[in-house]
Automatic annotation (TrEMBL):
This is Ligase-associated DNA damage response exonuclease. Keywords: Exonuclease, Hydrolase, Ligase, Nuclease. It is an enzyme of class 3 (hydrolase). NCBIfam families: Xnuc_lig_assoc. SUPFAM superfamilies: Metallo-hydrolase/oxidoreductase (SSF56281). Its EC number is 3.1.-.-. One of its GO terms (molecular function) is exonuclease activity. InterPro entries: MBL, RibonucZ/Hydroxyglut_hydro, Xnuc_lig_assoc. Gene3D superfamilies: Ribonuclease Z/Hydroxyacylglutathione hydrolase-like.
Length: 334
């Protein structure tokens, strides 16, 4: 039988830390919120007080115009909340500022991961393994079919497509927070130092990353380019812009998309993606199961994704687990 940790309760709109009367990643406005990172399915405006890393608070101010009630907590820093709950933020490796929230109360430790990945990422610190009693893990790619390839392989595919079609451009759809900046940083790491052109919706977040010390090289807006300048270029845009009227100004674009969902051919076909790039900011199946083994919790609570398969894996490996039913989590374009 799974123990009932009375001081921390999964509710439909978030995880309630009862002694401190605060909520983790709530989907509605609350008096006290602990936020793991800036994506819209975890962060929102309207809270009375928001506790997060300084980077996440900067992202939330940019995206949701939140400033009042912000309480920054740096990685490794511990704060004491009412009810004798100690809270520490440690890196999750997902996007800039993303954190696992470590809660300690009455001799018990709970780790809430938010979203995380285990692959190296030049734009954010790597995931840290924290042993605990309860491990609350995402399961976005919680099926054995999801085994993400090395990012170097996918970047090489992108650069080859560009080199093979210098009369065209490569238009890459990438989520505006995290994926776009990681893609650009990995292109730079692979030796691509030409101008990378941006859809206007990408600029502010890229500039914020640069303000926090993430070098992205020369970035320019597509609206400032001639058609000839875009031939042989790499252009980054939101996934929603891949096939809209905006893209028609580009020189015969090769349509690409960077997402873990590009492992699923039907998703690529649905979006008319010519060059699917399997690049994810979430842990794949092997990383999810390995992380549970390394953390070695007494219990795992599974949320945000394909909960049933990971729950079954835990059961087959004699690990106590339960699936949570939280609302407000969206299928982001990873």
């Amino acid at each position: 039988m799974i123990a009932d940790f009375a001081w921390i309760r999964p509710e439909p709109h978030g995880i309630h830390v009862v002694p401190a009367d605060c909520w983790i990643d709530p989907s509605q406005a609350v008096a006290n919120a602990l936020v793991t990172h800036g994506h819209a399915d975890h962060a929102r405006g309207g809270h009375g007080r928001t506790v997060a890393t300084p980077e996440t608070l900067a992202i939330m101010e940019l995206r949701y115009q939140t400033r009042e009630g912000a309480l920054p907590v740096r990685y490794g820093e511990t704060i004491r909340l009412p009810g004798e709950v100690d809270v520490t933020y440690v890196p999750a490796g997902h996007v800039l500022g993303s954190a696992q929230i470590v809660l300690e109360h009455a001799g018990e430790r709970v780790v809430v991961t938010g979203d995380y990945k285990r692959r190296p990422d030049p734009t954010c610190p790597p995931f840290e393994v924290v042993p605990c009693d309860v491990f609350i893990t995402e399961a976005t790619f919680g099926l054995p079919v999801f085994c993400h390839p090395p990012i170097e392989t996918e970047i090489a595919k992108l650069l080859k497509a560009r080199a093979d079609h210098l009369d065209r451009c490569v238009l890459v759809g990438a989520y505006a927070l995290g994926k776009a900046q990681r893609l650009i940083a990995e292109l730079r790491r692979a030796g691509h130092h030409d101008v990378i052109w941006l859809h206007g919706a990408m600029e502010r977040m890229c500039r914020l990353y640069e303000e926090w010390g993430v070098g992205l090289g020369e970035l320019r807006l597509v609206t400032d380019a001639t058609k000839d300048e875009l031939r042989g270029a790499i252009v980054v845009c939101p996934p929603s812009a891949l096939n809209d009227r905006w893209s028609r100004r580009l020189p015969d674009p090769i349509t690409a998309m960077a997402s873990g969902w590009m492992r699923v051919r039907q998703r690529a076909r649905q979006r008319n993606v010519e060059l699917p790039l399997v690049i994810s900011d979430h842990a794949d199946w092997g990383e999810l199961t390995r992380t549970i083994e390394e953390v070695n919790p007494s219990e795992s609570w599974i949320t945000h994704g394909r909960e049933e398969a990971l729950l079954r894996w835990c059961q087959l490996h004699q690990r106590r687990a339960r699936a949570l039913a939280l609302v407000g989590y969206e299928d982001e374009d990873d």
